[in-house]
Amino acid sequence: MYKYMHDQSVRMMNQGLVGSEIAEEIELPPELNNFWPDRGYYGTLKHNSRAVYQRYMGWYDGNPSDLDDLPPTEAAQKYVEYMGGEDAVLEKARDDFDDGDYRWTAMVLKQVVFANPDSAAGKNLLADTYEQLGYQAESGPWRSIYLQGAYELRNGVPDAGGTDTASPDTIRAMPPEMLFDYMGVRLNGPEAAGKVITLNVNFTDLNREYGLTVENGVLHHAPAPIPDANARISLSKATLDDIQLGNTTLEEAVSADDVTVDGQQESFNEFMGLLDTFPFWFNIVTP
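^ that's the sequence the OP posted. Answer follows.
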């Protein structure tokens, strides 16, 4: 099944079809489609064929109109304007909804919601549409995301639940190199622009020392100290984990003799202040 899905996606790709066209065209032959474990209760042909396209071709579909397209909110405002305004779009969308054309209704109402996030009628009709699509979805993940979209439209972004992928257990299980890579992702590049910070981090429990450099909005790390660094921080890996997790602050750790700072402590404070924290929940169907 997976070889069929891969090879046929690449075949159609070489015929000039883009991801959405391949997803619409691809079908399993009867001998695969009728094999019960091949049913799309989790992955789907439409989903996975697009993943094949993306692996080889990336996000660009070859149409120059998509090379530098407007972001969703700006594009939505123009779409709704060209369609005759919000009321006209909603009137036509209700007719398509009543006809069961939910895929199209979802596409057009997305423009209404992004053009006017305060449109109660647009959000409610789009939520109804997502529910219908969810009820009809064979794939569990597709059903879940449709219903998640409907929830957000009616109730806003959730503020509880979910899985924290950067949990304390995850952070503590990271070796220093991975932890520093994670810090590099958290580094707010625009805020770090123009700053040069050099730090040596000495892990007293691991008997290992690393050099960190923030420059050009990027964090680099190396398994060797930097000569004349702004500061040298000596601490255990567990203490750094606790600082990053917000269980303690650098000042509290210094006061408790869990951290020793030689040089400019403010450089380490500045570095930690450049690290973003990521919320688990974020908008998916509203701007």
